[in-house]
Amino acid sequence: MSVMPGALIIESMAQSAGTLVMYSLKKNQENISVYLLTVDKAKFRKPVCPGDTLFHRVVKKQNVKNIWKFKCTSFVNEKLVAEAEVSAIINSVI
After folding, report:
1. 3 φ, ψ to 5°?
2. pTM, whole model, 2 decimals?
3. What is the DSSP code (8-state) at residue 66?
């Protein structure tokens, strides 16, 4: 049975967190970049297989200046399959 690699699940969590940052800032988003800093407390509860639909819930825990921290959880059919805490840095490009 094929399974989705954990690195791809973490990557999709990070991209979802980046989308939340861009949506939250509501600025001219052309000059803003979001970079993944850390992944902590990552746990993979169940395998994700081809054909599964992965749903992410991303909640901002805190932000200090331009560093944001998130709690990410991933679900397939409303069952928890993975969770992690990720942090990102927001960089304004001039």
Report:
1. -130, 155
2. 0.85
3. T
DSSP code of residue 77: T
What's the rounded Cα separation, in Å, for the pair 18 and 29? 12
DSSP state of 26: -
Q: Which residue has the higher pLDDT, 44 or 21?
A: 44
In a domain, 1, yes or no: no
Q: With cut-offs at 50, 70 and 90, classify the pLDDT of residue 92.
A: confident
Which amino acid type is present at position 67?
I
The string of pLDDT tens digits covering residues 5-30 is 999 999 999 999 988 888 887 766 67
Domain span including residue 72: 6-92
Cβ atoms of 2 and 50 within 8 Å: the answer is yes
* CA gap 42, 86 in Å, rounded: 9
Residue 14: which CATH number? 3.10.129.10
